[in-house]
Amino acid sequence: MSVYIHSKPSVSDIFCDNIVITFEPGKQHYNSIINNVQELCCASYGSDTNKNGPWCKISKGDYRYAAYLTLADDIGEIKGRLEIRCDPNYEANRFLRLKWNPSYLSCSSARYFIDQFLEECGGYQSLMAEGKLTELHLTTDVVNADLNRCTIYYPGMRYSAPHLNNGKWESYQLGKKESNLHFMIYDKVKQSKVWNNKHHYFKVGVPECPTMRIEAVLRDIQASALAEIKNPFEKLCISQLPKALEGNEPWLPMFVRTAQIDGAQDALLLVPTNDRKRFKKILAHHSCGWWQPDHHWMQKWSAMQHSIINPIGCL
Predict the structure, then answer these.
(1) pTM for the whole thing?
(2) 3.40.720, 3.30.160, 3.90.1010, 3.40.50: which CATH number matches 18-136?
(3) Which tens digits make up the pLDDT trace of 215-229?
(4) Distance from C-alpha of 132 to C-alpha of 92, rounded to nearest angstrom
(5) What's the start-to-end Cα distance of the chain, in Å?
(6) Predicted confidence (pLDDT) per residue in 143-163, tens digit
(7) Which end of the chain is more exposed for a tag (fewer CB within 10 A), N or C?
């Protein structure tokens, strides 16, 4: 598994690609919040519309109410949206679930909307002080890298939810989705094309070069503790495995073949216990020099967390 050979891979800065946060505003504020969101939807240029208007009451599903506040350009093309869901059907507590992608709708724009419909509860500031981040996607793109030509390893995490096409990986997860940390690794070119074919109202850019996206998905974090998050990429290893016939390791051919299909964690489990430490060293020895997760984290995380917690509210 060698990395894409035509150009040296380059790793993007770490960025936030999705925020999902829940918030309990208190029963006394609930009806006014629903009314505030409804008014914002009606005034929001480019809002999703249907026979019920942009604010929809749902008869089925997990929540009784759902809405999208959209940000569009001068010609009406949607650039980003804030998803709001209220009043879960199967929960005793009444809370809000907010979701947006800061890559398209900045936290400043999200704050502009949130400050209006949560005005009585303290707006965005209260959301970040009292809310819970049920999902936080911290992401990096590796340009000129092919996920079929390298092995990604995190101690104790196994591959899951694989999607293959003609024997080639298009996406997979590393770790369990319900855990506090798992990774999603996928072909960003393919994913962007599939998205654009399915979503005519909101197109995304398609990378010109082969691009492997790595998303660290963190779950169930108090928003007020965002500054305490440790680097989720620290133990993530990206390796170019040696050729199967290289060296005198009798388990090496089996290890390489299993790592190609099922991931390095499963490959390590097939190696005799006494030999695993040596094979972990083989993974580390063949790690890609361009992957420096501590360097990228130290450069960007401080500014990123500030932009999430305390952005200036504007469109």
Answers:
(1) 0.85
(2) 3.30.160
(3) 999 999 999 999 889
(4) 17
(5) 45
(6) 998 888 888 899 999 888 778
(7) C
